[in-house]
Amino acid sequence: MTDLPFSRAVIAYVGWDTDAALPGRHPERIPDASMRDRVLDVIKMVDAEEPGYRGLWEWGREVGDNVSSRFPQLSKEAVDAVVALISFKWR
User: Fold this and answer.
1) pTM of the model
2) DSSP 8-state class, residue 16
């Protein structure tokens, strides 16, 4: 089952819910400290990943699969936001 508040917090952190052209890191957009910590757990997980020898898009899909597996309560849009954030970092 999707946890909408958690998913929305991830999307807000990345800025995916704005008209910004680029994903970013916006912890100030999550006023609740415990929710911010949950979101940062997701971000820490993906920050530890590196593309290595794989192509960026293939790696991004793998990261998305890993996030979905570890955090099944996140919506597809939240997972897509995290993948956009991490893949942008490596472009």
Assistant:
1) 0.90
2) T
Kindly report the CA angle at 64 between 29 and 38, in degrees rounded to 5? 35
16 in Cβ contact with 84 (< 8 Å)? yes
Q: Where are the domains of the chain?
A: 4-20+27-89
Contact 42, 72 (CB under 8 A): no
Longest dimension (CA), the chain: 38
CA distances from residue 45 to 18, 19, 20, 21, 82 in whole angstroms, order as listed: 24, 26, 24, 24, 10
DSSP string, 75-89: -HHHHHHHHHHHHHH
What pLDDT, in 10s, does the model give residues 47-72? 998 777 778 788 889 999 999 999 99
